[in-house]
Amino acid sequence: MTKVRIKFSKHGPVRFVGHLDLMRYFQKVMRRAGVDIAYSEGYSPHQLMSFAQPLPAGATSDGEYADLTLQSFRDIRLSESQNANAKEELSGEDTLKSLCLRMNSVMHEGITVTDAAVLEQGAEKAMTSVAACRWRLAFRAEDPLGQRAKDALAGQGGAKAVLTRFLQSERIVVRKKTKKAEKDVDLKPLIHEALADADGVIRVLMKAGSVDNVRPALFAAALLSFADAAAFPLQETEQQMISALQVHREETYLAAEEEGREVLLPLIPATTPTRV
Amino acid sequence: MNERLALTDAQLLSVEKPERYIGNEVNAVYKDLSLVDLRFCMCFPDVYDIGMSNLAIQIIYGMLNAQEGVWCERCCAPWTDLERLLREQDIPLFALESQDPLKEFDIIGFTLQYELCYTNVLQMLDLARIPLLASARGEDDPFIMGGGPCTYNPEPVADFFDFFYIGEAETRFTEVTDTVRAAKKEGLSRRETLLRLAGIPGIYVPSLYEVTYLSDGRINAVTPKEEAVPKRVHKELVRDLSDTYYPLHPVVPYIRVAQDRVVLEILRGCIRNCRFCQAGQLYKPFRERDVKVLKEWAIEMLEHTGHEEITLSSLSSSDYSALGELVDELIAYCQERHINISLPSLRIDAFSLDVMRRIQDIKKSSLTFAPEAGSQRLRNVINKGLYEEDILRGAREAFLGGWNKVKLYFMLGIPTETEEDLLGIGDIAGKICVEYFDNVPKEERQGQAVEVNASSSFFVPKPFTPFQWAAMNTREQYLEKVKTVKAGIAAQVNQKRIRYSYHSGDVSVLEGVFARGDRKLSAVILKAYENGARYDAWTEHFHPEYWDEAFASCGADPAFYAHRERDREEVLPWDHIDCGVSKAYLYREWERAKEGKESVNCRQGCEGCGAAAYRTGICPGGAA
Ligand code: SF4
């Protein structure tokens, strides 16, 4: 059995396909592409496949990841001899490349596998290794809240200026609701970097994953609330953010150590040995 | 792929399951509009989750798109949240693929699968900004076409449709689209086009028929208004099911729809001649698909959808002659690929139990019997062909094979029903429990005793069945009967092992009214729609008060349609439609029913229903 991590993008109308449906979509892709994926044991076997981190509804992405456990690289739609022939022509990285091609040939145009790598034995799962994400965020003019947000930022010298002041604050305290309780969280140390362009598009690298996750909607609401707390009460604004904020994930990162310091690397680092 | 969406991101994100409205599913078909000269929109008057589970839609979609120059798109009824949004923001209803307004299409086809969807047809036309009444449509409006089981009595919705297609789509659909394409090129008027369509076998253009009534409201006659228009419209039917279009690359929705699996239709029609069943008559004669063809199709469909389940679809799978062979082949293919096989509508016997054991885990499933009636007398009335000893033997074999859950389906309100028949429901449930305790030794019961789940629905008489003349029970009668059944179950020694549930029957009377309704009901449906009725099949959206008001203001009496017994001479609203079975045969069966006499099934012999005229299938002189 081999563990393979794939990277994929999600664009176009399929951005509205929710996380659970996307998982079902990939299960069907495996069968359409004849991928020899492994199944769990037991009562109702399921494909061994896990996804890094759900995207917010309606978001696009160039940095999605999933881990697949494969029985083999063979194409189960083909006979043994056909597979043997195919194998002779392929080796190492080519097997990965052919896996990606097979998946892409049966995928919807909006979803594309862009990279794949063989995971080492004992490598941490995609789901648990997520440490940060880079997002591209823009307020939608067609949404009332989005338009108000754009106006408010423009009225205070533009997104760039507001963002600069926002990041200079000592603390960025927000009230975060978890299932059990509400607590105050300081977003400041969770935001690695953020910048805005002249059109008000914000690119932000923030903590993600199971511990210190910052959702784009919370970040955007906190920014607006910072700009005008009366006009944008935090919790309400965050709740309405789904239709007001256009979200794109550029990359998902894991934390690694390099020369004694913590660095963020894409979930398939550029230096991975067995990689497409 | 079509990047353009009719709704903004903000709008899509404000409704439940936006995936219902974005198209772009796997196997959806996109065409270059400049190469298209006929645009067809296949509509389903219920939510996407139900619509995309419908086989007819997939057949027509695939079949039309296989033609050059024709683009068939889809549209399902917008859920209530989107309807609100479309109205508030003044957005016309759009098709899934191009996302263009429905009004821009040449033909809009609705499949009418159940009577309670009628107000949703109006909802969709209204949101599409197409006049609801056919008579109000102009030269620029699309043709509104109807098909599906309800169109065997299309009269209640006759005012809303330009034409109906009676029968199976595979035979004449291309002729319909070709005719409209040619008419467009020749610049024919709407009426000229409809006259031409009326000449195609199976096409019924209601506006070309005049209906006259007797003073008591019954029909006097239905007559064509023009020479060239046929007096009766005959059902279209596929002669060779193995050599016809089948959607091998069906659209695969993103969301989990009702039928989230490959649907392999193994046969059409039914040999059983059950007297309550409309489908059994409508799809006669019984025709089977070749097992080799089915096997190839199954693999093709599984590989092109990636579904993890395949279901064999038919009215009665056990009657498929090569079932054993087909199941063996499918198991060989599916098991190593972790694909489930599901086999509904099996008659329970040693063979089917063996099949079920091989395709699924025993623990998962419960056994289903559909005795429909509680006593042998009443089962003879409906010609069910199922006897108590069969049920008990089936249950015994199942219990010995490790099953311990049994589901029983009944109908209440069957003509001639007595208290004894109703009490019989408790009896048979009780006897099944006894079979369990008598045959399964204590040590093998593993702490789980037998569980019998009985449920009943409200019998609705349907056109083209021997019960088309019968009076339907009132809601009050039905609820009385429920009480009797409950008492019968409570009297059983093993009553703790029996659970009983019943459909509330609120909408059943409405279903009964439409099923045997006439043209006068179009006004009622329109009024109810204007009152706010839609999604009537959804309990949470059903408002009887909209309907009560509509009947009252139109001066129509639901009892006239539902609770009245008809006599032999009455002209029935659907008499000018020919589904292949003769009225004489149906009446013969109605009389036999009242005498409690059984008829044979089509495999045992031929009752001379009239369907042999199609010269195919199981009938004398047919191919099989
Ligand atoms: S003609 Fe005879 S065999 Fe054919 S469907 Fe009718 S009853 Fe059955």
Low-pLDDT runs of chain A: none
How many domains in all of chain A? 2
What portion of residues of chain A belong to β-strands? Answer: 25-35%
Poorly predicted ranges of chain B: none
The number of strands of chain A is 12
Assembly form of the protein:
heterodimer
- Strand tally of chain B is 19
Are any ligands bound, and if so which?
A: iron/sulfur cluster
Mean pLDDT of chain B: 95
Broad structural category of chain A: alpha+beta
Instruction: Name the shape of chain B in a single word.
Output: globular
Largest sheet of chain B: 6 strands, mixed
Distance between the termini of chain A: 19 Å
* Beginning-to-end CA distance, first to last residue of chain B: 44 Å
Helix content percent band of chain B? 25-40%
Tally of helical segments of chain A = 8
DSSP helical segment count of chain B: 20
Describe the structure.
The complex is a heterodimer of chains A (276) and B (624). Chain A is an alpha+beta fold. Chain A folds into two domains: 2-123, Pseudouridine synthase I, catalytic domain, N-terminal subdomain (Alpha-Beta Plaits); 129-266, no CATH class. Chain A has eight helices and twelve strands. In chain A, strands 1, 2, 3, 4, 5, 6, 9, 10, 11 and 12 form a ten-stranded mixed sheet that branches. A two-stranded antiparallel sheet of chain A has the order 7-8. In chain A, α5 (144-155) packs across α8 and α7 crosses α8. The longest helix of chain A is centred in the first third of the chain and has 14 residues, at 19-32. The mean pLDDT of chain A is 91. Chain B is an alpha/beta fold. Chain B has three domains: 9-234, no CATH class; 239-360 and 580-624, Transcription Regulator spoIIAA, CATH 3.30.750.210; 363-503, Transcription Regulator spoIIAA (2-Layer Sandwich). In chain B, 34% of the residues lie in helices and 14% in strands. Chain B has 20 helices and 19 strands. In chain B, the strands form six sheets. Chain B has a six-stranded mixed sheet with strand order 2-1-3-4-5-6. A four-stranded parallel sheet of chain B has the order 15-16-17-18. A three-stranded parallel sheet of chain B has the order 10-13-14, covered by helices on one side. In chain B, α9 runs parallel beside α10 and α13 packs parallel to α14 (419-439). Chains A and B meet through α1 and α8 of A and α1 and α9 of B. Bound molecules: iron/sulfur cluster (SF4). Residues 284-285, 602, 606-609, 611-612, 618-619 of chain B line the site of iron/sulfur cluster (SF4).
